[in-house]
Design brief:
This protein has 326 residues and is α/β, with parallel strands linked by helices. Helices cover 41% and strands 18% of the residues. It has two domains: 227 residues, Spore Coat Polysaccharide Biosynthesis Protein SpsA, Chain A; 69 residues. The strands form two sheets. Strands 1, 2, 3, 4, 5, 6, 8, 10 and 11 form a nine-stranded mixed beta sheet that branches. Helix 10 runs antiparallel to helix 11, helix 10 packs parallel to helix 12 and helix 11 runs antiparallel to helix 12. The chain is globular, with a radius of gyration of 20 Å.
C-alpha cells in the first residue's frame, strides 16, 4: 500500500547531450503541473554533459542517475523506472515543453478510460503544427513499403497509417503512441517487463505498445491536450544516414520479434526495392548537382546497402549483446 505522501506520477527523462533541453522541459513541468505530487528521475546515458550538476543547482529534488556509458533509450528508461516510486510512469523526452497542465489531464484520462494501460497526447512542433507521427500503426511490410509523404498527403485517412485517433475530439484507442510522451500504469509496465532492451534507439515505443496490447490493456491517444516536441519538427530534413538506417533496423527487429522471420525478410526485400526505385528517379536530378538531391541519394544508397546486408547496424551499446528473441 502506498503512503499518502507518495508521488502520483514519476516522470522519467533520458538525457544524452541535452542538458539545456532538460532544463527547459523541467521548468515547464513545474510551471504547468500544480495539483499532482511529482517525482522526476533523470538518467544521463553516458554523455557527462553537466546535466547532473545543473540539476543539483536548479532542481535539487530531482533524482539523477549517471550511467557510465550510453546504454540506449530503452535500458535508460528501465533504469529510471527501477528508481521510481509512483503508480504511474510518464516517459518524457527532454526536448518537450508543456504549455498547459497536460500531465494532469492525461492522468485523469488514464484512470477513467476502459482498460487503459498507456496513454499519449498530441505532439506539436514549435510553430504549433501537428506531428502526425505521435500516433502510428504497427509496422507491416505493406504500410512500410507505401509510407511516403505523397501518399500520406493524398490519402491521410488510410487505415494503413493508423492516424485515425488524430482526427477526433475525444480519446480513442490507438496502436502506437509516440515514445516522446507516454503515460503508463506502473503495474502494466512491470507486467510486460518494461522496455525491450534489444532496441538501442528507435522502435522502443512500437515494441512497448505492442506488448501492452498483447497483455490485454488498451493504448489510447487523447487529442484534448498537446505538448511541444522540438525534436520532431526537423527530423526529415536533418536525419543522418545512420538514423535512416537505424530506424529501418528497428522495424526489422520488431517484425522479426513479433511477426516472424518471413515477415522481417519480406520487409528487407521491400526496402531494397523501394530504395532502388527512388534512386532511379533521383538519378536524372543529380545532373543539376543540387546538394539536397545528393543527400537524398546517399540516404537511399545507405538504406539499399543495409537491406542487402552490406551495412551492419549495432542496435545496442557496445558489449551489451542484447537479444531480440521473443
Amino acid at each position: 500500500m502506498r503512503a499518502q505522501g507518495d508521488p502520483e506520477v514519476s516522470i522519467l527523462v533520458v538525457n544524452w547531450n541535452s542538458a539545456g533541453h532538460v532544463r527547459k522541459c523541467l521548468q515547464s513541468v513545474f510551471q504547468q503541473t500544480r495539483a499532482l505530487r511529482l517525482e522526476i528521475v533523470v538518467v544521463d546515458s553516458g554523455s557527462y554533459d553537466g546535466c547532473g550538476e545543473m540539476l543539483s543547482r536548479e532542481f535539487p529534488a530531482v533524482k539523477f542517475i549517471q550511467s557510465r556509458e550510453n546504454v540506449g533509450f530503452a535500458r535508460a528508461n528501465n533504469l529510471g523506472a527501477g528508481a521510481a516510486r509512483a503508480a504511474r510512469l510518464l516517459l518524457l523526452n527532454p526536448d518537450t515543453e508543456l504549455k498547459e497542465d497536460s500531465i494532469g489531464l492525461m492522468v485523469r484520462r488514464l484512470e477513467t478510460l476502459p482498460g487503459a494501460g498507456a496513454l499519449g497526447c498530441r505532439l506539436v512542433n514549435g510553430d504549433g503544427s501537428l506531428q502526425t507521427s505521435c500516433v502510428q500503426a504497427f509496422p507491416t511490410v505493406w504500410n512500410q513499403l507505401l509510407d511516403c509523404e505523397f501518399l500520406r498527403r493524398r490519402f491521410p485517412g488510410w487505415s494503413l497509417w493508423g492516424t485515425a485517433p488524430l482526427h477526433g475530439t475525444q480519446p480513442a484507442r490507438a496502436e502506437v503512441v509516440s515514445g516522446a510522451c507516454i503515460l503508463v500504469k506502473r503495474e502494466v509496465f512491470e507486467q510486460i517487463g518494461g522496455f525491450s532492451e534489444c532496441y538501442f534507439m528507435y522502435g522502443e515505443d512500437l515494441d512497448l505498445c505492442f506488448k501492452i496490447k498483447q497483455a490485454g490493456h488498451g493504448v489510447y491517444h487523447t487529442p484534448e491536450t498537446a505538448i511541444i516536441h522540438y525534436g520532431g519538427g526537423s527530423t526529415r530534413q536533418s536525419a543522418s544516414d545512420f538514423a535512416s538506417v537505424m530506424t529501418r533496423e528497428s522495424v526489422y527487429r520488431f517484425l522479426r520479434r513479433h511477426r516472424g522471420p518471413a515477415s522481417a525478410m519480406g520487409y528487407r526485400l521491400a526496402m531494397a526495392g523501394a530504395s532502388l526505385a527512388r534512386m532511379v528517379l533521383l538519378l536524372p536530378m543529380l545532373l543539376v548537382a543540387r546538394q539536397s538531391r545528393r543527400c537524398t541519394w546517399e540516404k537511399w544508397l545507405a538504406i539499399l546497402r543495409w537491406s542487402l546486408g552490406f551495412k551492419r547496424m549495432t542496435a545496442h551499446a557496445p558489449g551489451e549483446g542484447k537479444s531480440c528473441a521473443a
